[in-house]
């Protein structure tokens, strides 16, 4: 099944977003990685209904959220109003996003199953993050589940992410950890920081 806006709008059309498989109350790994990057202007791509943005706002980040799902953005805008900048967009298309210090992606890249989609993702990343900027990218790792939210995944290890981003990026840090979903399932993740040369 393709990963499209309707699929994701349906996924977010629930009474309780804390029961979504990727929900996490605390964002210790994401915040550890993000806070070690220079800069406060961040774009959270595939933000969903994440509460990571609550922590980022408390820490004085200038936060833009991007998602293909209008329903996800509606949930965030109900919570945060004008404290966030909102972009509805599909990372597999050519987007005009502006310039940021940090690109954060938790659990989006692994839904891009074909090479052209992944190439577009990198084009959007490189348009948004100039030399000296950072990409914090978190995906399901190769040793974990191969499906999420009814969709197939393209999972990663350090080498695969390094190869995808290419010669303009250097891997600064990679953390392996396990997300426990609301139903007790273990979901191994790889969370990384890349710096643009
Ligand atoms: C598994 S959820 C993760 C949400 C959030 N990052 C978190 O950690 O709670 C994946 C998110 O990516 C969004 N998404 C999926 N494909 C996308 C695409 N091609 N472009 C932009 N957003 C996309 C979905 O709408 C959803 O909000």
How does this structure look, described?
The structure is a single chain. By secondary structure, the chain is an alpha/beta fold. The protein has one domain: Rossmann fold, CATH 3.40.50.150. It is 28% helix and 27% strand. It has 6 helices and 9 strands. It has helices at 5-12, 28-35, 52-58, 70-80, 115-128, 158-165, and strands at residues 41-45, 62-67, 85-88, 102-106, 134-140, 147-148, 151-152, 169-180, 186-196. Strands 3-2-1-4-5-9-8 form a 7-stranded mixed beta sheet. Strand 6 and strand 7 form a beta hairpin. It is globular. 37% of the residues are buried. Bound molecules: S-adenosylmethionine. S-adenosylmethionine binds next to loops.
Task: Tell me briefly what this model is.
This protein has 6 helices and 9 strands; from the N terminus they run ααβαβαββαβββαββ. The chain is an alpha/beta fold. S-adenosylmethionine (SAM) binds at residues 3, 8, 22, 46-48, 50, 67-69, 72, 90-92, 106-108, 111.
Layout: helices, strands, pairs:
Blueprint: H1 5-12, H2 28-35, E1 41-45, H3 52-58, E2 62-67, H4 70-80, E3 85-88, E4 102-106, H5 115-128, E5 134-140, E6 147-148, E7 151-152, H6 158-165, E8 169-180, E9 186-196
Parallel strand pairs: 1-2, 1-4, 2-3, 4-5
Antiparallel strand pairs: 5-9, 6-7, 8-9
The protein binds S-adenosylmethionine.
């Amino acid at each position: 099944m393709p990963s499209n806006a309707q699929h994701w709008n349906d996924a977010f059309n629930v009474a309780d977003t804390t029961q979504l498989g990727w929900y996490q109350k605390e964002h210790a790994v994401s915040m550890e990685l993000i806070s070690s990057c220079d800069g406060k202007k961040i774009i959270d791509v595939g933000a969903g209904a994440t509460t990571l943005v609550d922590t980022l706002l408390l820490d004085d980040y200038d936060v833009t959220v991007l998602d293909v799902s209008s329903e996800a953005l509606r949930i965030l805008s109900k919570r945060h109003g004008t404290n966030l900048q909102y972009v509805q967009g599909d990372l597999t298309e050519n987007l005009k996003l502006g310039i940021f210090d940090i690109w954060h992606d938790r659990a989006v890249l692994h839904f891009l199953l074909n090479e052209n989609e992944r190439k577009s993702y990198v084009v959007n990343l490189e348009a948004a993050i100039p030399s000296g900027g950072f990409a914090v990218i978190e995906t399901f790792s190769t040793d974990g589940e191969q499906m999420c939210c009814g969709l197939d995944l393209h999972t990663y290890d350090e080498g695969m992410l390094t190869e995808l981003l290419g010669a303009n990026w250097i891997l600064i840090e990679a953390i392996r950890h396990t997300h426990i979903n609301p139903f007790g399932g273990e979901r191994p993740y790889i969370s990384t920081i890349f710096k643009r040369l």
